[in-house]
Design a protein that fits this description.
Strand content: 25-35%
Distance between the termini: 22 Å
Structural class: alpha+beta
Number of strands: 5
Strand order of the largest sheet: 3-4-5
Shape: globular
Length: 117
């Protein structure tokens, strides 16, 4: 499984050494796709408006229980091709309500990776 490689800071496309679009593969590609799935807002993907987390409707500027967000993140991660299992771990929330944590992803390739958000 391949996917376009994204810059970790800007989340933008990257060129390879030949100037073509860089491609990620294997477990890295699966984990990058999990990170993208958790970052996308419901309705944001014009090719499939049903994907994504309900950030506008239920998460941002609303009170939502941590277990509900955890479940939503795990469902989004589990829907990614190549994911065998996903477990969301919340590590904290800042004074300005910025949630931190990661998703522990088990891939069908047998790898276990930590995908931060």
């Amino acid at each position: 499984m391949n996917t376009l490689l994204l810059d970790r800071t800007t989340w933008d496309l990257l060129p390879d050494a030949s100037g073509n679009m860089a491609v990620a593969s294997g477990s890295y590609a699966i984990c990058q796709n999990v990170s993208s799935a958790i970052r996308v807002f419901t309705g944001e993907c014009y090719y499939n408006t049903a994907t994504g987390l309900p950030y506008r409707q239920h998460i941002l500027a609303h009170t939502q229980a941590a277990p509900v967000f955890r479940m939503q993140a795990e469902q989004a991660a589990s829907a990614v091709a190549g994911v065998a299992a996903a477990r969301c771990v919340l590590t904290g929330i800042s004074a300005n309500r910025q949630l931190s944590g990661y998703v522990l992803v088990s891939t069908i390739l047998g790898d276990v990776q930590n995908v931060g958000f």
